[in-house]
Write a structure and sequence with these properties.
With 449 residues, this protein is of the alpha/beta class. Helix content is 48%, strand content 16%. Strand 14 and strand 15 form a beta hairpin. The structure holds NADPH dihydro-nicotinamide-adenine-dinucleotide phosphate (NDP).
Length: 449
């Protein structure tokens, strides 16, 4: 019997919620995609008949494991490790590892689902995955971090490989953690392959990988503004976060002639009315990457306001780049940005804007660049790192930067192609549909299983 090709959004979501109870972040991420993809699927019976979106919202595999390690006082600690291998239709699983005390399976499923679309948009042959542990790296010694990373890899190594699954960093996992994990992977497998990306330059890492997400975000914003006969130069911007993505977003914004007014961490935000320049950014990098201190320390060296426990979105500005974490722009924050005349919001973090926030931006005519398009620069350069590892080659900074710019332009153009709504370009819709098509076509080619 032929199935009907009308799938109602509310029925689809009710089924998803029933199968994944309590996983609110995952529900949110799927809703945001299904809203665009289901109407599209209706007009393409092959996707509908093959129940592609239902299949795409079920991860290929979830691995959950115990991570035991010893702290500096000799106490045995236990954490939970995860790898969600979401979809490998267009290439081996690829996605970061997050170490955060609040990490849940719901968060990892939303991240793995998003990653599948994002990786598809890059045009590279990369599937989607995400992983990590509910481990809090804050306040841990170097030795504790090392022992945790090694213990984490003692289990993860058997599930990954250069042609199977290639992890990378994310929140709480930077160059230091990637190096400890790569070292342990190398010991356990007696191989030196490109199984983790974000490695140090001395052992297979790529130029610009550290900068890639932030730089790519600004390249995409530049493309969007140019498409709308506007530009970055002379604008003001709010940035949240002060980690990897935030730092290199600020750096590229400064280079593009933008005045960056804010930076933040999970304790509060600094508002520098004169703008964060390169000298001030160097202090942020020192505080966060080397001394591992709070952003509030900024005000001990430079004149700025510090707002404890607050987010930066009430500060008037033309551009906003949320680069910290999921759901950091809720309805009221989005309203504050709209009321202050914000022109464009580009997501550096994954799902930083709630669905209610996105609706407010769309109603206010604010250009909105969703994470799966806007922050894809990081995974794109990770893909280039994998290519260099396979070829035993190292490309120059200039070569990688030029490839990154081309990839972000290609992502922009796909969003325009699939997001055109009359005279308006809906980048959210464009990214969802363009990301979907490639994965869906691959799944259909493989047959139904
Ligand atoms: P980092 O760990 O380097 O930095 C995270 C930043 O966000 C820190 O400033 C941190 O503050 C802040 N933060 C974390 N949790 C919260 C919270 N609950 N409220 C407010 N601020 C918070 O991570 P990244 O910069 O790598 O990642 C940031 C975002 O970008 C994440 O959503 C990640 O998934 C996404 N992303 C990262 C990519 C990458 O290449 N690194 C690629 C694509 C997306 P504190 O120091 O207080 O913890």
């Amino acid at each position: 019997m032929k199935m009907t090709c009308k799938i109602r959004l509310d029925e689809f979501m009710a089924g998803l919620v029933r199968r994944n109870p309590g996983e609110t972040e995952f529900h949110q991420a799927v809703y945001e995609v299904a809203k665009d993809v289901l109407p599209f699927v209706e007009s393409r019976p092959i996707y509908c008949e093959n129940r592609i979106l239902e299949r795409m919202t079920e991860p290929d595999r979830i691995i959950i494991f115990r991570v035991s390690w010893e702290d500096d006082d000799g106490n045995i600690r236990a954490n939970r490790g995860y790898r969600v291998q979401f979809n490998n239709s267009i290439g081996p699983y690829k996605g970061g590892l997050r170490f955060d005390k609040g990490l849940t399976l719901s968060i990892l499923k939303f991240l793995g689902f998003e990653q599948t679309f994002k990786n598809s948009l890059t045009g590279l042959p990369l599937g989607g995955a995400k992983g990590g542990a509910d481990f809090n790296p804050k306040g841990k010694s170097e030795h504790e971090i090392m022992r945790f990373c090694q213990s984490f890899m003692n289990e993860l190594f058997r599930h990954i490989g250069p042609n199977t699954d290639i992890p990378a960093g994310d929140i709480g996992v930077g160059a230091r953690e990637v190096s400890y994990m790569f070292g342990q992977y190398k010991r356990l497998t007696n191989t030196v392959t490109g199984t983790i990306t974000g490695k140090g330059l001395a052992f297979g890492g790529s130029m610009i990988r550290t900068e890639a997400t932030g730089y790519g975000l600004v390249y995409l914003a530049d493309n969007i503004l140019k498409q709308h006969k506007n530009g970055l130069e002379g604008k003001t911007a709010l940035v949240s976060g002060s980690g990897n993505v935030a730092q290199y977003t600020i750096e590229k914004l400064i280079d593009s002639g933008v005045k960056v007014l804010t930076a933040s961490d999970s304790s509060g935000f600094v508002y520098d009315k004169d703008g964060i320049d390169k000298e001030k950014l160097a202090l942020i990098k020192q505080l966060k990457n080397v001394e591992r201190k709070r952003i509030s320390e900024y005000t001990k060296t430079f004149k700025a306001e510090y707002h404890e426990g607050q987010k930066p979105w009430k500060v008037p500005s033309q551009l906003a780049f949320p680069c910290a974490t999921q759901n950091e722009i809720l309805e009221l924050d989005a309203k504050a940005l709209a009321d202050n005349g914000c022109l464009a919001v580009a997501e550096g973090a994954n799902m930083p804007v709630s669905n209610e926030g996105i609706d407010i931006f769309e109603k206010a005519g604010i250009l909105f660049a969703p994470a799966k398009a806007a922050n894809a620069g990081g995974v794109a350069v990770s893909g280039l790192e994998m290519t260099q590892n396979s070829m035993r080659l190292s490309w120059t900074r200039k070569q990688i930067d030029s490839r990154l710019k081309n990839i972000m332009k290609h992502i922009h153009d796909q969003c325009v192609e699939h997001g055109q709504n009359g005279n308006v370009i809906n980048y959210r819709k464009g990214a969802n549909i363009a990301g979907f098509i490639k994965v869906a076509d691959a799944m259909i080619s493989f047959g139904n299983c």
